[in-house]
Amino acid sequence: MKIIPLINEITNTFNETFKNNLTPLNLESKIRNVGDTFTLKLYESFLNYFDENFKKSKERKKEFNIKETRQRTLITSIGLITINSTAYINKATKERYVPLRDILHLKPYQRLTNEAEYQLTKYAMEENMSQAASHALRNTQISRSTVSKKIKVLDGSIDEVITKSTCQPDILYIEMDEIHANLQKGGNRICPCAIVHEGYEEDFVKRKKLKNIRYFASSKLTYEELWEVIFDYVDKKYDIDKFKKIFVSGDGATGIKNYTNCFPNAKFVLDPFHYIKKHLKYIFKDDINLRNIADNYIRNDLLDDFKTLVNCQIEKYPEQEKYMKEHMNYIINNLDGIKNQLDEDYKVHYSMEGHVNQAFARYITSSPYGFSEQGLENKLKLLVYHANKHELTIEDYYNLKYGNNNYEEINIKINKLCNIKYDQRLSSNHSLEYKINASLPILDSPSENNRLKQLTSIRQEIYVI
């Protein structure tokens, strides 16, 4: 591939761009635009060179006949490019063959390059689909539905290595909750999610941070199946038998309390947020004194007194009798979980609500769009990777799209196909120095303009003998 004509072209583009209306306000945007133009031209030149080089090769002439050459427009991570793509017919099998499709690993009629899809996927790990559609690709916007379709087909997985902890903690915390998602076909999908951590990194700071936190979420797994996934992680990360205590906390839902098959010795803690804000507050409203009295009855097993107190509230609000009794029964059914809040080893108050909202709910529950079932699962998968601080590589993306270990196979195939040498030699009529003549920016004062001219003028070194 000859680079000199491309440099000549970018030199002319630079001169034309900087010839008129150059000011300090638009200087940076002009430089960026020239750079983008050069990058796209370089990409087009490379692919056109490959297409032409293959067409002239002895191997091609021996095995393939030319069928046609067409121009194709591709959406890349850096913008739109238009390239020549030659199709061939295999002399022996009569099958159609398009080498550029192999070198870029494109399917027929695929307009988005895999690198562009990779950038979209990375962006979708941190933002919603609409933001990814608008901002993931340079100089190009695509539709939200296109991003959703690309996310939907990611059926593979990433083999994350879980290293054994060098410092075995005494206490392990498992907090579980659920998020709700709207489906395209109608209805609502409940998705269990959880975090596992070792408590606070530092107890004395106001803004506390959890230590060695790990996120889990799925739209397809049941609570029981998610517990198995959590157990597998804990078993690889720690020595389970050496924990002094394992606390499981949540809102008391049946699925959350189905941890006993995986963690039979764990202690359940009903999270204080739901206990006080959702249940006690509904029954006793804003009367703090009654709430404190009810809490005292509950923790001291004075359940008859607690029920009497609730009945007094029902007399005040008879239209709420059904719901008050539901909250009362919920509290009684989670009596042990309420008492375990005061366990001397339970140092971390329930923080799952904030983590659920930050990592998942603002992308899933708050989305005005409905998800397909596979699209929802894949979106959650990406959000979990991001929450666990996994940096998505291009190899990860290929494994997600095509299945594990496909990246290596694709690389081997491309390396066999593509043996490109670059012609970087300068001909005798080209200089190693390219002069770009453009007017200087106009600054605010004559002194600043003079200073700029001095800085950009050719300096002569004076030697004193």
SSE topology:
Layout: H1 4-19, H2 27-56, H3 58-63, E1 64-76, E2 79-90, E3 96-97, H4 99-103, H5 114-126, H6 129-135, H7 144-152, E4 171-182, E5 188-197, E6 214-217, H8 223-237, E7 245-250, E8 267-270, H9 272-284, H10 288-299, H11 303-316, H12 321-333, H13 335-339, H14 352-361, H15 373-387, H16 394-402, H17 406-417, H18 446-456
Parallel strand pairs: 4-7, 7-8
Antiparallel strand pairs: 1-2, 2-3, 4-5, 5-6
Helix pairs in contact: 1-2, 5-6, 5-15, 6-7, 7-15, 9-10, 9-12, 10-11, 11-12
Characterise the protein shown here.
With 465 residues, the protein is α/β, with parallel strands linked by helices. Helix content is 46%, strand content 14%. The protein is built from 18 helices and eight strands. A five-stranded mixed sheet has the order 6-5-4-7-8, sandwiched between helices. Strand 2 and strand 3 form a beta hairpin. Helix 9 packs across helix 10 and helix 9 packs antiparallel against helix 12. The longest helix is centred in the first third of the chain and has 30 residues. The protein is elongated and about 90 Å long. 25% of the residues are buried. The C terminus is likely disordered.
